[in-house]
Design brief:
With 257 residues, this protein is of the alpha/beta class. The longest helix has 28 residues. The protein starts with 7 loop residues before the first strand and ends in a 12-residue tail after the last strand. Bound molecules: nicotinamide-adenine-dinucleotide (NAD). Nicotinamide-adenine-dinucleotide binds next to helix 1 and helix 6.
C-alpha cells in the first residue's frame, strides 16, 4: 500500500530538480501527479517516464488566470485536489548593493506571487473536498543571512510567512487543510549547478571574510522524503511548520561536512 494512495497532487516546477524528485516519489507512493512547468520538453519527458499516474501541463506560476484554470481542470477531471507543492523558483545572484530592480521583481514574481496564487486557488478546492496539504518550498535563505542572493532571500521569507498565515486561517476555519514550508540547504539540482556560471566575474559576490564555506550538497530525494511525509496523512498534526532539511547548516557556524 502506498503512502499517497488515492490522492491527487499538483507539483509546480516539476520538469527537473526537486520537483521532478517529488513527482517520481509521489507516483511511486500511489498518487496521481499533475506536473507543471514552463519547460515543456523536460516536463513531458518526466511525466512520460513516470507513466499512467502522471500528466504534464505547461504553467507559468506568475499567471493568476492560469492557476485558476489548472485547478478547476484538475477538480473537474479528478474530482478533487489533495496536495499542492509550490516548488517552482528561480535564483538571481546579487547583494543589496548590486541586485537590480528587474532581478528583484523577477525573483519575487516567480516565487512569492506564484506561491500566493497557488495557495489562493488551492484552498477553496481543498476545502470543497474535505481538506488537503500544501507544501511551500522555501530555503535556509529565509532563516539565515544570505548576502549574495538578497531578492531570493526576500521571496523565501514571504513564502514562509504565507505558509503560517494559510495554516492558521485553515485551522481557525476547520478546513482540514495543512500548510507547511520546507527549507533546504544546497541540493544538487540544475539550479545549483547553474549558479557557478552566474557567479563568474562577479567580484561583488566574493566573500570578504573567512566565514563559513560551502559544504557537501544534499540529494533531491533528501528533500522529496520530507515533502512526501508532509503530503501524507502521517503528518496530520504538522501544520504551519518551517522544516529545515539542511544537515545543520542553518544552525551552526562553521563548516559542516
Ligand atoms: N536546489 C537547492 O539547493 C535548493 C535549496 C533551497 C531551496 N530550493 C528551492 O527548491 C525549489 C526547486 O529548486 P531546484 O533546485 O529544483 O530548481 P531547478 O532550477 O533545478 O528547477 C526549478 C524548475 O522550476 C521551473 N520554473 C522556473 N520558473 C517557473 C515559472 N515561472 N513557472 C513554472 N515553472 C517555473 C524551471 O523550469 C525548473 O524546471 C525552488 O523553489 C528553490 O528555490 C532549492
Amino acid at each position: 500500500m502506498g503512502r499517497l494512495d488515492g490522492k491527487v497532487a499538483i507539483i509546480t516546477g516539476a520538469a527537473k530538480g526537486l520537483g521532478e524528485a517529488d513527482a517520481r516519489m509521489f507516483a511511486r507512493e500511489g498518487a496521481t501527479v499533475i506536473l507543471t512547468d514552463m519547460d515543456k520538453e523536460n516536463g513531458q519527458r518526466v511525466a512520460g517516464e513516470i507513466g499512467a499516474k502522471a500528466e504534464f501541463h505547461v504553467q507559468d506560476v506568475r499567471d493568476e488566470q492560469g492557476w485558476e484554470d489548472i485547478i478547476a481542470d484538475i477538480v473537474s477531471r479528478h474530482g478533487k485536489l489533495d496536495i499542492l507543492v509550490n516548488n517552482a523558483g528561480v535564483v538571481e545572484p546579487g547583494t543589496i548593493e548590486t541586485q537590480t530592480a528587474e532581478e528583484y521583481r523577477f525573483v519575487m514574481a516567480v516565487s512569492a506571487d506564484g506561491a500566493f496564487y497557488g495557495c489562493k486557488y488551492a484552498v477553496p478546492a481543498m476545502k470543497a473536498s474535505g481538506g488537503g496539504s500544501i507544501i511551500n518550498m522555501c530555503s535556509i535563505a529565509s532563516i539565515i543571512g544570505e548576502p549574495i542572493v538578497v531578492a531570493y532571500s526576500m521571496a523565501k521569507g514571504a513564502i514562509e510567512s504565507l505558509t503560517r498565515s494559510v495554516a492558521v486561517h485553515s485551522a481557525n476555519n476547520k478546513y482540514n487543510i495543512r500548510c507547511n514550508s520546507v527549507h533546504p540547504a544546497g541540493i544538487l539540482t540544475p539550479m545549483v549547478m547553474g549558479i557557478g556560471g552566474k557567479l563568474e566575474g562577479r567580484d561583488d559576490l566574493r566573500p570578504n571574510s573567512d566565514g563559513p564555506e560551502a559544504s557537501a550538497l544534499g540529494e533531491p530525494d533528501d528533500i522529496a522524503n520530507t515533502v512526501l511525509f508532509l503530503a501524507s496523512d502521517e503528518s496530520k498534526f504538522v501544520n504551519g511548520a518551517a522544516i529545515r532539511v539542511d544537515n545543520a547548516k542553518s544552525v551552526v557556524e562553521g563548516v559542516v561536512s
